[in-house]
Write a structure and sequence with these properties.
InterPro entries: BlueCu_1 (IPR000923), BlueCu_1_BS (IPR028871), Cupredoxin (IPR008972), Ig-like_fold (IPR013783), Ig-like_OmpL47-like (IPR058094), Ig_E-set (IPR014756). Residues 65-139 form the Blue (type 1) copper domain. Residues 239-257 have a biased composition (Polar residues). The protein has 515 residues and is mainly β. It has five domains: 2-140, Cupredoxins -  blue copper proteins (Immunoglobulin-like), CATH 2.60.40; 152-235, Sandwich (Immunoglobulin-like), CATH 2.60.40.10; 246-330, Immunoglobulin-like (Sandwich), CATH 2.60.40; 341-425, Immunoglobulins (Immunoglobulin-like, Sandwich), CATH 2.60.40; 440-508, no CATH class. It has helices at residues 5-25, 461-465, 474-490, 496-508, and strands at residues 35-40, 54-56, 58-65, 78-82, 97-100, 109-116, 119-124, 134-140, 152-158, 167-168, 171-178, 184-191, 197-198, 203-205, 209-219, 228-235, 246-252, 261-262, 265-272, 279-286, 292-293, 298-300, 304-314, 323-330, 341-347, 356-357, 360-367, 374-381, 387-388, 393-395, 399-409, 418-425, 440-443, 446-451. It has a five-stranded mixed sheet. Strands 10-16-15-12-13 form a five-stranded mixed sheet, with no helix packed on it. The N and C termini lie far apart (103 Å).
Length: 515
């Protein structure tokens, strides 16, 4: 108690002044009161130690005690104030405001005489920080029968226990009493049948061995309950755990190229305790919010930068130093659900009926507006297999043809299949009015020394090769020459060796190369 003297001396003047002011305005006690109602307080700033719950209308003695006898070991002041605002339907006709401290002029015990009327009164402690000390008193019109029923009183034992149920190191006995009539005036207890003493706060017992704690309560009408008892054993406790747990956090989710999480980020917290008492709680705090008990991974989906603090506490009360994880969440990219646009064009010399003379060249193009880009372009000629498209397709087989085509983007969207129909016919005798009649096959100035014969319909090999035509790439030109010479070999116009010489000359040329 000596450690409290400096603080109590510093506040003594203020407490005395407040007490005198309150007492000066209190109603002087009457010669006798119909009933006595007692409130007690202790070290707790969240609740009174004991309170009456019911009373009868009429003159009443109010007793408010906040002393060492009622469990105040720190000199903490409290008030007992009746609410006179009239809010909530409470009675407002009793003006009571008692400030009590163990070191005031009354040693913490104060009385006042008031007149209660039927209804409900709201009482509370008005000292800042003590706002949770609040309750209700119900007043009835009176009962002709006196209170002859003793209070009910119970006790509970708490503490860490071993497998046999014994308490490790200490056991704490808490006594609670209730009286539905005149109200509880006092509670008493004794340890191992020693001597009765007032009960003010939970009683810790640390002596190793078997124990029995008896308890009883008396109401304001003087009725005392039969003693109750609890029996238990205290054994030596385990070595004290002073090591805090180790806590860690792992953030997971889909990340972009800069490390930001796309759409959501999930943080999983884990904790281990090597001190022996075991992990009791894991808590987290997101972006400066309230600390929250952790039970499942924390999923964050709001866009922007975030800071997650976390900590863990073991069963011995050791709390780990706060850890933190920082991360940023960005919006996911817009999903591409639009297939590419694909088209095919057929080019070549055509007759009056629109048929292609000798050769038709199919060019397929695709564009993607969905954002992911074109991945593949394919075509299928007549009943052939689907083939990846890279360069224009040259068709010199006489007859009707159908070129099917499609494209797929990088998001997996495939355009609906399209098709274009066309017909290739043999060139007529006047198909090459400006026929190249040089004696040998010449490609880009290179003389192959192979005779430039008439292949039929008035067209020579040079006419079919058409080196002066426009080709999108050099490969397209070489493929065209391969197609022409293959057809001439099949028709018996060229030998395989001659065809190879012409193709090599085409490959060595610059035809189709960018200007």
């Amino acid at each position: 108690m000596n450690r409290l003297v400096p603080r109590l001396q510093a506040g003594a003047a203020l407490i005395a002044a407040l007490l005198l002011a309150v007492l000066a305005g209190a109603t002087p006690p009457a010669a006798a009161a119909a009933q006595t109602l007692t409130w007690t307080a202790g070290d707790d700033i969240t609740a009174y130690r004991s309170v009456p719950t019911t009373a009868v209308a009429g003159q009443t003695t109010i007793v408010f005690e906040n002393s060492a006898a009622t469990g105040n070991t720190t000199g903490m002041p409290h008030t007992l104030t009746f609410d006179t605002s009239g809010d909530g339907g409470y009675n407002s006709d009793v003006n009571l405001n008692i400030l009590a401290s163990p070191f005031d002029v009354n040693n913490g015990r104060h009385t006042a005489t008031v007149t209660l009327t039927p209804g409900k009164y709201r009482y509370l402690c008005t000292i800042p920080g003590h706002s949770t000390m609040v309750g209700e008193l119900t007043v009835t019109s009176g009962d002709p029968d006196p209170d002859t029923t003793a209070p009910t009183v119970t006790a509970t034992v708490a503490g860490s226990r071993n497998a046999q149920g014994d308490y490790l190191g200490s056991a704490t006995v808490t006594v609670a009493a209730n009286d539905a009539g005149s109200g509880v005036r006092g509670v008493e207890y004794q340890i191992n049948d020693t001597s009765w003493q007032p009960y003010a706060a939970p009683v810790p017992i640390t002596t190793i061995g078997d124990h029995s704690v008896q308890f009883r309560a008396t109401d304001n009408a003087g009725n005392t309950s039969q003693p109750g008892s609890v029996a238990f054993r205290v054994v030596a406790g385990q070595p004290q755990d002073t090591t805090p747990p180790v806590v860690s956090g792992q953030v997971s989710g889909t990340r972009d190229s800069t490390g930001n999480y796309v759409g959501t980020a999930t943080t999983t917290l884990t904790a281990t305790d090597t001190g022996g008492s075991g992990v009791k709680t894991i808590e987290y705090q997101l972006d400066g919010g309230a600390w929250t008990a952790y039970s499942t991974p924390v999923v964050v989906s709001s866009l922007g930068a975030h800071m997650l603090h976390y900590r863990a506490t073991d069963n011995a009360g050791n709390t780990a130093a706060e850890q933190m994880a920082s991360f940023t969440i960005v919006a996911p990219p817009v999903v591409d659900t639009t297939p590419p646009q694909v088209t095919a064009t057929i080019t070549g010399d055509r007759d009056a009926g629109g048929n292609y003379l000798g050769t038709a060249t199919a060019t397929v193009t695709a564009t993607d507006t969905g954002g992911s880009g074109v991945k593949t372009v394919e075509y299928r000629l007549d009943d052939g297999a689907w083939t990846g498209y890279s360069t224009p397709v040259v068709i010199n087989t006489v007859g009707a043809h159908v070129l099917r085509h499609r494209a797929t983007d990088n998001a997996g969207n495939t355009a609906a299949e399209k098709q274009v129909a066309f017909t290739v016919v043999e060139r007529g005798s006047d198909a090459c009015p400006d026929s190249d009649t040089r004696d040998t096959v010449v490609i880009d100035g290179f003389d192959t020394r192979i005779r430039n014969i008439d292949t039929g319909n008035g067209c020579t090999i040079n006419d079919l090769i058409a080196e002066r035509a426009v080709y999108p790439t050099h490969a397209a030109f070489v493929r065209h020459v391969e197609t022409v010479t293959t057809g001439l070999v099949t028709a018996g116009k060229l030998t395989q060796r001659q065809a190879g010489t012409i193709v090599r000359a085409a490959a060595a040329s610059d035809k189709g190369e960018p200007a």
